[in-house]
Design brief:
The complex is a heterotrimer of chains A (about 140), B (about 800) and C (about 110). With about 140 residues, chain A is mainly alpha-helical. Chain A is built from five helices and two strands, in the order H-H-H-H-E-E-H. Chain A has a two-stranded antiparallel sheet. In chain A, helix 1 (about 5-30) packs antiparallel against helix 2 and helix 4 (about 70-85) packs antiparallel against helix 5 (about 115-140). With about 800 residues, chain B is an all-alpha fold. Among the domains of chain B are: about 270-550, no CATH class; about 595-740, no CATH class; about 745-800, no CATH class. Chain B has 35 helices and two strands. A two-stranded antiparallel ribbon of chain B has the order 1-2. In chain B, a hairpin with a 4-residue loop joins strand 1 (about 60-65) and strand 2 (about 70-75). In chain B, helix 15 runs parallel beside helix 17 and helix 19 packs antiparallel against helix 22 (about 430-455). Chain C is an all-alpha fold. Chain C has one domain (about 1-105): Orthogonal Bundle (Helix Hairpins), CATH 1.10.287. The chains are: A mainly alpha (about 140), B mainly alpha (about 800), C mainly alpha (about 110). Chains in contact: A-B, A-C, B-C. The interface between B and C is large, with 98 and 86 residues.
Chain lengths: ~140, ~800, ~110
């Protein structure tokens, strides 16, 4: 992608990026109760990085975020399959999830899920896949 | 999982380590590592003999798919044990022989032994499974490993041809057999052989009885190379000789015999069974023996002789099934056919195995198997000559070898057919002893050709590639062991009658036994001056005369036109089916995506319209609809206008943007339809896809100059209007027909109870239907890797060049 | 509303089919995009529209809309994104290699190396 020289966009992005990523993480974690989850959270994070790509060029972004997105995809798949297969060790069918309620001092009653770990896998896969697709096409001259 | 199961699959498990042995111990012949396994298995199966002799069976069950009635039930009874001993015993000898036959420097030993072990495990599975589906799976595995072994020297055209032929014919039979198994299941409701046998009386008058019988027999006949399916066996001789000795004479081709014997209690009482098994068997017997004389290749003679001998055993089993019609055991003179079948099965394995090994030695030490080039080898190979002459005499039915005893019993059984008074045998029964006698004369002749054309006569050193000499000791040990069995069984035939033959008969003819009873088998040399003795004398006299005058009448074979042979017929059929299907495929596989889409869509319209009318499903229900507000109208109009205008727009950029606009409108629809997750996802996805579309076409240099040819096409328009109309009709009918209550209630009730979540959509995705999501992200990962590959691999290629 | 949607979906399918039957690769891809929109709306309409509040237990409503079609569609949206991207790159690459966007011209073309 071409290097653009847009001061307003650049300064706005540096501010906004933080909020977009934060919001995407919120959307991801809230998924079990409110609209959101791994898919939307992952897409939104990817969208934030795409925005970064549009503002700067690929090389700069690669310096800021030196990540191999194919590995992110693999980690995501590993998370999803690992959480699912973990159930087999407890002699329950593949993909059985468990949850427990925990009472934390400040946050109050919170339920912890293995389903969240599975969703985290989805999140990583979506980020990895989207970024791999966009970057490969973008790098191709 | 029991020791028995372990014994069956141990060859398969062990084969995994063969490549490691091959790589790590390059100096030691891989065969030495393989050899202990069949020996151990042989000892293991020997140890079960006392149990089997006491009328017990060993049954072990391992649940596989219990819901379908498919369990790996391993059962050792008399018949299974006999085969298991043959498989492991001959297997051990063959492995030992192959160590000397296949040079470790030249051959790919790792693949050879992997295939051989694959076969051994599969064959054990066939004969020891009590479940028909499991047996079928192992059955096909034997066909498969036979294919691999025939094609072992795959660089040879003939090996590939033979491998393909055997595969096509035996797999055809295997599929027919699967059909028969399924028909049996429909009739009895079980795949277990033991249970089917218990129900055999009830299914006799079932309308599917005959189709099942024919299907099962097709499987048996193709596998055991019966007429007219025998044509694959001579071509299978392209395999290395140890393989021919093992698979194509001693074990695999006897799987069909096994199947017939195993299912005799089920089908045996039928007249069709009698005529098919006995008739096909006896035709195969005479056909194989007559055409064996025409062969010039040592292994070719042996192949036809195997075909003929398999026919002999098959006809005995067929004739023996008639014994089921004669109740009282003490006076039942027809069970002798079954005794003869089992005894000859063992004898055939011993003498034919040793003959194959001897032929392999001749081939190995002279470089040819053509009897026109061979001759006078006796002084060079005295031991091989001794092996061959004993084997051939046994095969010809000469005393004092075991072949003589089983041949006598064969004659007895055939002569007794004339005393039967069922199935029109009063008149037709005489055919059996006559054909049997004629075939035996030819058997005598080819046995003589096999020995005397090779080892006596004129020595022709100029036609041989190598200077002949006796084989190394290791190569001689296995055939010597087998040939000593030929002699031992000849002199002491009753060694086996208690331990193996009687229990095997009990497995084939269980209904003739009272509880605790057993078949009394006594085989003796001398019966007095009976008709069988005179038949044997006649065979010898006529055989010698015809052998001496062979050159005079051998020309008769030229009268049979080559074009009419079954071999030619097979080739024609193969060619014709290939070219035919090629023509048909070319008619509709035009290579144009447009025509394929037209097929698919036309079928879509057709099938759905027909179903709608057939089931009278189209129903317009104007009641019970939700209200339409102003927003909905606006969005609907926007989607309609947007999607139709894409059709008329030439510019790529505009159409991409319009597609995006439609996508955003759809996401607004999701907002209105109370689907917040969908709306969010669709919004983000739409943004990223439009970016993607633009990025892709941003890089295309000739974007502007590209001309779009847009011509209106009536067929396309008709099809698309048709698709639209059908989908509308479906959507309306889906609304109009409410056949059952929606299952969503379950999710509403259980989202918090079982998954402690509140967002039902997300809980369904990660918990209730997690498998969908798991596969979905896998697909996504594959798609992204595909894209990565499409772009990056080409870059690398460019860099290289 | 369901009846109106049935017609909207029909038109989406019709346009999609017409685009897919054309010769330009890009138009085929756009067609598949429209087709997936149509299919998603079809699934949603079949489950009934606006029968209660959004499927979030936090709403504490009497009725909820059917969550199952929504979950299915969510999966379908993401998959169709992956497939569209794959198609797109396929088209892009074949355009680079073959210099044409016309599927009829591509027929039987051997790779040029």
């Amino acid at each position: 992608m071409k290097k653009t020289n847009n001061i307003i966009l650049e300064s706005a992005i540096t501010l906004l990026l933080f909020f977009i990523v934060l919001f995407s993480v919120y959307i991801f974690t809230a998924g079990h109760y409110y609209p959101g989850g791994g898919f939307i959270g992952g897409l939104m994070t990817a969208g934030a990085i795409v925005l970064l790509l549009i503002t700067y060029d690929i090389k700069t972004v690669q310096q800021i975020l030196p990540v191999n997105y194919r590995i992110i995809t693999a980690i995501g798949l590993l998370f999803a399959i690992g959480t699912s297969a973990g159930a087999l060790f407890f002699d329950v069918p593949f993909l059985t999830h468990v949850f427990t309620h925990v009472d934390l001092p400040v946050l109050g009653d919170i339920s912890l899920h293995t389903a969240t770990l599975f969703d985290l896998g989805v999140y990583f896969v979506v980020v990895g896949v989207t970024m791999t697709i966009i970057l490969t096409i973008g790098e191709d001259e | 999982m029991s020791y028995l199961h372990l014994a069956i699959i141990s060859p398969l498990l062990f084969s995994v380590f063969i490549p490691i042995f091959y790589k790590k111990f390059i100096r030691i012949h891989t065969g030495w590592f393989v050899l202990p396994l069949p020996i151990l298995l042989f000892i293991y199966f020997l140890s079960t003999i006392p149990k089997i002799t006491n009328r017990q069976t060993v049954t072990e069950t391992f649940n596989w798919i219990p819901s379908l009635g498919v369990n790996f039930t391993a059962k050792v009874d008399g018949l299974g044990l006999l085969f298991a001993l043959l498989i492991t015993g001959i297997g051990a000898l063959v492995v030992f022989y192959s160590i000397y036959y296949l040079a470790k420097e030249k051959e790919r030993l790792n693949t050879f032994y992997v295939y051989l072990l694959l076969f051994m495990g599969a064959m054990l599975g066939v004969v020891l499974s009590d479940n028909l589906i499991v047996m079928y799976a192992f059955w096909e595995l034997t066909s498969f490993s036979s294919f691999l072994l025939i094609g072992y020297w795959h660089e040879r055209e003939k090996s590939r041809y033979g491998a393909q032929k055997s595969m096509l014919i035996t797999v055809f039979g295997g599929l027919a057999m699967l059909g028969g198994i399924i028909l049996l299941y429909i009739m009895t409701g079980t795949f277990s052989i033991t249970e089917i046998v218990a129900q055999s009386g009830d299914i006799f008058h079932h309308s599917l009885f005959l189709p099942a019988l024919i299907c099962v027999l097709l499987g048996a006949f193709t596998k055991s190379a019966q007429f007219p399916f025998y044509i694959w066996l001579p071509d299978a001789m392209e395999a290395p000789t140890p393989v021919s000795a093992y698979l194509h004479s001693a074990t695999m081709v006897k799987a069909g015999i096994y199947l017939v014997a195993r299912l005799t209690p089920v089908f045996g009482a039928s007249s069709v069974w009698f005529w098919l098994v006995a008739g096909v068997g006896i035709i195969t017997l005479i056909w194989g023996s007559v055409f064996a004389i025409r062969q010039t290749d040592l292994k070719g003679i042996l192949a036809f002789s195997t075909v003929s001998q398999l026919g002999l055993i098959m006809s005995l089993l067929g004739v023996g099934s008639a014994a089921l019609h004669y109740e009282a055991l003490s006076e039942n003179i027809f069970t002798v056919a079954i005794t003869a079948a089992i005894f000859h099965l063992i004898n055939h394995a011993t003498f034919k195995g040793s003959l194959f090994m001897a032929a392999g030695i001749v081939d190995h030490e002279t470089g040819t198997r053509d009897i026109r080039k061979l001759g006078g080898l006796m002084p060079f190979m005295p031991i091989t000559f001794t092996i061959s002459i004993i084997g051939a005499f046994s095969m010809a039915g000469l005393p004092p070898f075991n072949g003589f005893l089983s041949k006598e019993m064969f004659f007895t059984a055939m002569v007794r057919v004339t005393q039967m008074d069922i199935f029109n045998l009063e008149t037709l029964g005489i055919l059996f002893p006559v054909i049997a006698w004629v075939a035996s004369v030819f058997t005598f002749i080819y046995s003589m050709i096999l020995v005397f054309k090779t080892f006596t006569g004129k020595y022709q050193p100029e036609k041989l590639d190598k200077k002949p000499h006796e084989a190394p000791l290791g190569m001689l040990i296995p055939p010597v062991i087998l040939i000593s069995l030929v002699v031992i069984f000849g002199f002491f035939p009753n060694l086996l009658s208690e331990s193996l033959i009687s229990p095997a008969m009990a497995a084939i003819l269980p209904s003739l036994l009272n509880a605790g009873g057993e078949f009394v088998v006594h085989i003796s040399f001398w019966h007095g001056f009976t008709i069988e003795l005179f038949m044997t004398l006649g065979v010898i006299l006529l055989g010698i005369t015809l052998y001496k005058t062979l050159p005079k009448w051998k020309r008769m074979y030229d009268l049979v036109p080559e074009k009419l042979s079954l071999f030619r017929f097979y080739d024609r059929l193969l060619e014709w089916s290939q070219s035919g299907s090629y023509k048909v495929t070319n008619k509709y596989m035009t290579g144009s995506i447009h025509s394929y889409l037209v097929y698919i869509l036309a079928f879509f319209i057709f099938s759905l319209t027909v179903t709608l009318f057939w089931k009278d499903a189209f129903k317009l229900d104007t009641g019970n609809v939700s209200s339409i507000g102003i927003y909905e109208w606006v969005l609907a109009i926007f989607v309609v206008v947007g999607s139709i205008s894409i059709l008329f727009i030439k510019s790529r950029m505009t159409s991409i943007i319009l597609l995006g606009a439609v996508g955003y409108t759809v996401s607004l629809f999701y907002v209105l339809f109370r689907a917040p997750d969908l709306a969010l996802t669709q919004l983000v996805i739409e943004t990223i896809s439009v970016a993607l579309f633009l990025v892709c076409f941003y890089h295309l240099p000739k974007l502007q100059r590209y001309e779009t040819r847009m011509r209106f096409k009536l067929t396309n328009a008709l099809i698309s209007v048709g698709v639209g109309a059908v989908v509308t009709a479906i959507a309306l009918s889906a609304h109009g027909n409410k056949l059952f209550e929606a299952i969503s209630k379950y999710y509403v009730e259980n989202t918090y109870e079982k998954a402690a979540g509140q967002n039902m959509v997300n809980v369904i995705l990660v918990d209730f239907r997690g498998f969908d999501t798991l596969f979905e992200i896998t697909v996504l990962a594959i798609a992204s890797l595909g894209i990565y590959g499409m772009i990056k691999l080409r870059l690398n290629r460019r860099k290289e060049s | 509303m369901e009846i109106l949607m049935a017609f909207v979906i029909g038109i989406l399918f019709m346009s999609a089919t017409y685009l897919m039957l054309s010769k330009s690769l890009l138009r085929i891809i756009i067609g598949t995009g429209l087709l997936s929109h149509g299919a998603h709306l079809l699934i949603l309409t079949m489950g009934g529209l606006k029968r209660g509040s959004a499927p979030l237990l936090g709403e504490h409503a009497e009725h909820y809309t059917d969550p199952l079609p929504q979950a299915l569609i969510l999966t379908a949206i993401v998959i169709s994104f992956g497939v569209t991207a794959f198609f797109l790159v396929l088209a892009y690459r074949s355009y680079q290699e073959l210099g044409t966007d016309n599927v009829e011209d591509m027929k039987g073309t051997e790779p040029n190396d």
